[in-house]
Amino acid sequence: MARPRPRDLDIIFGEFEPGKGNAITDVPGVGVGHCTLIEGDGSLVVGKGPVRTGITVILPHGRNLFREKVQAGCFVLNGFGKSTGLHQIQELGTIETPIALTNTLSVHRIADAMVGYACSMNPEIGISTGTVNPVVGDINDGFLNDIQGRHLREEHLLAAIKDAQENLAENNFNANGKANNNFEAESLSRKSFAASHPAANNPATGKNAVMRPFAEGNVGGGTGCSCLGFKGGIGTSSRKLTPEQGGWTIGVLAQTNFGGDLIIKGVPVGALLKQQGRRDPGTAPATAPVTPKNSTPPASPDSPNLHHPADPLDRPEPPEIPGSCMIIIATDAPLDARLLTRMARRGALGMARTGFYSASGSGDFFIAFSTANPVPHDPECLDLRAGATEGRGPHVKLGAGEAKKPILLRREVLPDEAMSPLFAAQADAIEEAIINSLFAAETMTGRDGNTRFALPIEETLKLLRKFGALF
Questions:
Q1: Contact status, residue 71 vs residue 88, Cβ threshold 8 Å
Q2: Catalytically annotated residue among 364, 370, 428, 437
Q3: Residue 362 is among the residues annotated as catalytic for this protein
Q4: How many helices and strands, by DSSP H and E, does the chain display?
């Protein structure tokens, strides 16, 4: 059973309210999926394992991203990484494929697979239209994973995309009580969806709906992560602005694999645990396990999916290997590429609250996109002019006579003066997403017996109470 999230234990970050799922998928239209590879144990044999890696995919929307791009910005705080696609985001301000997060030495294979996926959806790529820009982020999971083996293939990317599509389809069904008619790729009809997901017959839809959560911790691109001396992974969070601030939603997904000493709500938890000799205590504490409200108890430390050995308290502390972080920021606020770049540049502010300092060997990358104001691949074929689509839907193919010359694209965009609440909410969401990844991640042993231990939740709660950060 999953470990509790901080909010389940009344650990609250900031003043803004989270979205319904406290996840990046609270931004309407966004889907997330994973493909996780955990195979083998023992000594490293390059090309065979042990394998502790995966792929996480973020879909900015469920339609054809190459034909209907999203506006985006990015920022590189420390460029020790191998991510692809960022130069074109900086130049053109758009994203035209799903975003994939994986390990450093698999970036190129996954980028190649993403090109294949895009070409299968758009056979004209590189022939009668331009080429495609795959966006793939990375972290170094070599402490636990046979990273040289490059075990990830095209089928793993496609599995993660499919998982993201199903996540998006289910969330759309829960929110609207009907399947998403605009969902082009592998969409699920209401009939087939309800048949394969009995829980979908629950009448709670609309404002009372609960979004389908996607997994955090040791999944997808977070499988082999290490963070702030503990087991890292995938974490997510969201914030909702007040109606007076625009009512926009901001969602964050973090792939946490960086160094430093953990800080939670101002308390130096990592340093204090180290002083107590409890850095990375992977087994359950002597006290009763933490059980959040309305939840079942967490998994036993002997659960086979934890992959860890016996844990003597006097073991040596494992090495801290700087290894990168990817932060993905999504919003439905009407922002252009310049404003989204302003958001991406501020991503490290939320990270710094957790003990992050951007080590020399850490690749720290931030990507922000907006689901508002999509950008057509062929602007002469789609009319996005203000007022031009009245009664015709948001994306309407023009007639032959109308398509003879390019059109002006007029969009509503927030002024700079309205950005401060977004900046503040984003910092809170990034901070919580990182801590969520640590609370979710379980102890894992990988190649050569290397072990990264989970954050000890009970001891962490005691420290937060002792220093007045939790009551």
A1: no
A2: 364
A3: yes
A4: 9, 14
pLDDT tens-digit map of 101-112 = 999 999 999 999
Token representation of residue 313:
């308290």
Least confident span in 183-197, 323-337, 352-366: 183-197
To the query of whether residue 295 is one of the catalytic residues in this protein, the response is no
Task: Indicate the pairing of strand 363-376 with strand 31-39.
Answer: unpaired
Exposed e or buried b per residue across 209-220, where buried means at least 16 C-beta atoms within 10 angstroms of its C-beta:
bebbbbbbbbbb
Please check whether residue 233 is in contact with residue 216, taking contact to mean a CB–CB distance below 8 angstroms: yes
**Mean pLDDT over each residue of the chain, to the nearest integer:** 83
Annotated catalytic residue, options 187, 237, 238, 324: 324
Q: How far apart are CA 452 and CA 460, in angstroms?
A: 17
146: number of Cβ within 10 Å: 26
d(CA 295, CA 8) in angstroms, rounded, equals: 9
DSSP string spanning 256-272? E---B---BTTB-HHHH
For residue range 224-249, list pLDDT tens digits in order.
999 999 999 999 999 999 999 999 99
Report how far Cα 346 is from the mean position of its chain's Cα atoms: 17
Would residue 138 show up in a list of annotated catalytic residues for this protein?
no
| HEC letters along 45-102 | ECCCECEEEEEEEEECCCCCCCCEEEEEEEEEEEECCCCECHHHHHHHCEECCCEEEE
In the sheet with 363-376, reading across from the earlier edge strand, the strands are 94-95, 68-79, 363-376, 325-331, 249-256, 234-240
The one catalytic residue in 83, 187, 358, 362 is: 362
Give the residue ranges of DSSP H helices in 263-417.
269-275, 337-345, 347-352
Residue 351 has phi, psi (to 5 degrees) of: -65, -40
Please report, for residues 320, 397, 409, the alpha-carbon distance to residue 375 in angstroms, rounded to integers and kept in the order given.
42, 14, 9
Domains recognised in the chain with CATH numbers? 6-466 (3.60.70.12)
State both tokens at 233.
């992974």
Residue 59 near residue 157 (C-beta atoms within 8 A): no
